[in-house]
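Note to self: keep these together.
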Amino acid sequence: MFGKNEEAKPFSIDDYEFLPGTIHLVDINHNLDVKKNGNDNNGDIILHPQPTNSPNDPLNWSTKKRTFQFGIIWFWGFMVAGSLNFMTPLYSSWITNYGITLNQLLISSALGYLFLGVGVTLVQPTGLKLGKQFVYNCCTVIAIISCGFGSKTSNISYIYAYKALIGIAAAPCDSLVEISSTDIFFQHERSTAISWLLMALYGGTDLFPVAAGYIADSLPWSWCYYIQIIIYGTLFLVQLFFMEDTTFRRDNKMESELEEDILNQIKSYETIQNQRINTNTEERDDKKNHNSEDIDIHSVVNSGDDDSIPEKTYLQKRNWIHTEYNDIRSWFNIFIRPFYLITFPAVVWSGLIYGGQMCWLSLLINLSSSIYSKPPYNFSDGIVGLTSLGIFVGNLVGMFYGGPFVDWLAVKLARRNHGILEPEHRLQAMLVPTILNAAGILAFGLSAHYGSAWEISVFLGMGFMGYAMTASGAVSVVYAVDSYEKLASESIVLMLFIRNMIGMAFTFGIGPWIDQQGIFKTTWVMFGLSIVINGSYIFMIMYGKSLRRWTRERYEKVTKGMTAY
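Structure:
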C-alpha cells in the first residue's frame, strides 16, 4: 500500500515527502553514520530519539535498569487500575445490605472516570514541572488514604468519595506512565512498551475483581481495602528507595537536524551511485564525494551534550522533586497545550478508538455481577469475580499482538518502504482486533440475553473483547505519538482525556440504556458502534498522511520555540 508510486521508477529520496511523523527507521544500505540498535551500533534500526552523552539520560541506562524501572511503573499502574475497578463482586452484597441500587453503583463508576479524566490534565503538567517521581509518590499516598476511607463504606456517599479519590490517585496511569515509557524506550520499541502498560491497566481491572470476590467469600469485604493498603505501603517503600525519575530534557531541534542530516547522507550516497553508473572512475568519485558531501551526524547528535556532567548520586535520585531537566514552560502553558491539538485528526481519532475500548470494558465490568449473580447462573461473589479471567486471558494475548508483533510489522513495512516509517504502517494491524471485538460483543451480550452456557460469554465474549482492547489501545496510542513526536506528551493527555470522558458518559448511560432497550437491542447497537469506531482505521490508512500534511503548518507553529521538552 505504501511506496507503490516510488516503485514505478528508481527510488530517489528527493521524490519522497517528509511530513510530521515520517522518519527514517531502517538503514537499508548500512552506511548511515547514526546511532543504531545492537552492540556497537551494528544493527540497522536507527534509534529515535538518539541518546545523548549525558550519564543521566534514561536512554543510556542498561537494559536491566530500564526494565527494572519500567517494572516499578508497570506494577504501580496495575495496582491503581485494579483499585479503580475492583468492586464489581461486592455489588450484590452492598445492594442487599445497604439499600444501594445498581444505577447508583454505575454512577460511582462514572465518577471514577470523571476524576480520572480531570486528574490527567492536572498531574501531567505537575509531573513535567516537578518530576514524575513526585507525582507517583504523592498518588500512592492518596491511594492509601482512599482505601482507608473506602473500608468504612456504609452508604453510597462513601463509595462516591472513594471513587473520586482513587480517580485522582490513578490519573498518572492515564498520562505519566505512557510518557514515562517514551522516556526509556526508543520508537521501534514503543508498541511493546505501551502494550505492556495497557496489560497492566487491563490486568488490574480484570484480576482485582477475582481477588475481591474470593476475599469477600471468606473474610469481611472491608479486607478488600485493607489488603490493598498493605500492598500500597510496600510499594511506597520500593518507590522511595529504588524509583528514579525518567524526565530528561531533549533538544527538539537536534532531532530535526538528525533527519536532515540523514537525508543529506542518503543524497550523497545516491550521488555516488549515479556517478558510478555514468563513469568508470568509481574509486575517484567515491573518494571525492565522501570527502566533500558526507555529513558526520554524531557532531549534530552530540552537540550540546557536556561529557563533564556528573551522574546523579543515590541521594539525589531519592529526592521527590526534580527540576534540573523539567519542562521550561509554565505550568499553565503545559496544562492548556494539549487542548490545542483538538484540530489534529490523528490525536482525536486515537482518543476515539481508545475511548471505544472503555465502552466495551465498562460494559463488561459493570454488568458481570447483574448477569452472573442471577438465574440461570446464580454465581457466588467469588465466581462472579472469576469470570474476569476471560478478559485477562484475552488482554494477555492481545498484548503480544499489539506490542511485539506491531513493532515487528512497523520495521518490516519500513524496510519495504526504503527504510522510511509512516505512522500509518502500524494501523494495518487493526483488522484482527476490529473483527474480534465485534464478535466478542455479540458473544457476550447475546449469550446473556438467551441464558446460554457461561463458557460462551466468558471465553469467547470476554476473551475476544479483552484481546481487542489491549491490541487496539496500543496501536492507537503509538499512532498518535508517532504522528506528532514533538507533542508526544500533549497528544497522550488529550487522547486519554477524550477516552475517559467517553468512558464516563457511557458508564453514566449504560444502566438506563439497558433498562429501556434491554440487553438484546443494546448488544446489537454496541456491535454496530464497534464496527464503525474500530473500522475507521481504514479511513486513517487511506487519508492519514494527507491529514498530517494538512496539519503540518499548525504543528510547526505549535512547536515553534519548543527547543526542549
